[in-house]
């Protein structure tokens, strides 16, 4: 199905769904391509490709690739790649700047900031946050700078620190 503005499918979709603005499918099996947004209102098995957002109620096995956000409101079995990725339950791979998952029984998060509510999660990134992460706010001064501030994220055996500061102005 190819739509001029949107490729809307009111029931199950098998095959190819292309829309210049958006595509919507109930139970999606195949390929969704949209200029802005792809939506699968039930489960999805296949590929969602958009410039802005992909949304699926569940991904049985598939790939969500977007320029900004990928959202899976249930079980995610597959790959999400975008600036922001969210999955309720991640059993696949998230690659992006900000990755979030409520539960994380199996899978990997790779990004600058990885957040999960599961302590067993495998995360590779600059900042990894889980329930056992201690977050400290730091402010300090020195003889080479006037004012510095930082946030420290302490995990069991590692920590990350992100800070801002000024040079000595006097």
What's a quick, concise take on this entry?
By secondary structure, the protein is mainly β.
Descriptive account of the structure:
It is built from no helices and 15 strands. The chain has strands at 2-3, 6-8, 13-19, 22-25, 28-34, 37-50, 53-66, 69-81, 84-90, 93-103, 108-116, 122-129, 134-140, 148-154, 159-165. Strands 1, 2, 3, 4, 5, 6, 7, 8, 9, 10, 11 and 12 form a twelve-stranded parallel sheet that branches. A three-stranded antiparallel sheet has the order 13-14-15, with no helix packed on it. It is elongated, with a radius of gyration of 20 Å.
Topology:
Layout: E1 2-3, E2 6-8, E3 13-19, E4 22-25, E5 28-34, E6 37-50, E7 53-66, E8 69-81, E9 84-90, E10 93-103, E11 108-116, E12 122-129, E13 134-140, E14 148-154, E15 159-165
Parallel strand pairs: 1-3, 2-4, 3-5, 4-6, 5-6, 6-7, 7-8, 8-9, 8-10, 9-10, 10-11, 11-12
Antiparallel strand pairs: 13-14, 14-15
């Amino acid at each position: 199905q190819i739509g001029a503005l949107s490729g809307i499918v009111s029931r199950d979709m098998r095959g190819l769904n292309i829309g210049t603005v958006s595509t919507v499918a109930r139970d999606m099996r195949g390929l969704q391509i949209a200029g802005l947004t792809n939506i699968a209102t039930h489960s999805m098995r296949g590929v969602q490709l958009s410039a802005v957002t992909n949304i699926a109620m569940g991904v049985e096995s598939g790939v969500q690739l977007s320029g900004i956000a990928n959202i899976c409101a249930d079980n995610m079995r597959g790959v999400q790649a975008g600036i922001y990725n969210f999955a309720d339950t991640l059993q696949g791979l998230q690659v992006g700047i900000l990755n979030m998952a409520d539960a994380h029984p199996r899978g990997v998060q790779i990004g600058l900031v990885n957040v999960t509510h599961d302590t067993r999660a495998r995360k590779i990134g600059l900042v990894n946050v889980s329930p056992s992460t201690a977050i400290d706010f730091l402010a300090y001064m020195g003889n080479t700078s006037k004012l510095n501030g930082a946030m420290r994220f302490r995990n069991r055996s590692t920590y990350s620190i992100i800070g801002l500061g000024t040079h000595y102005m006097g």
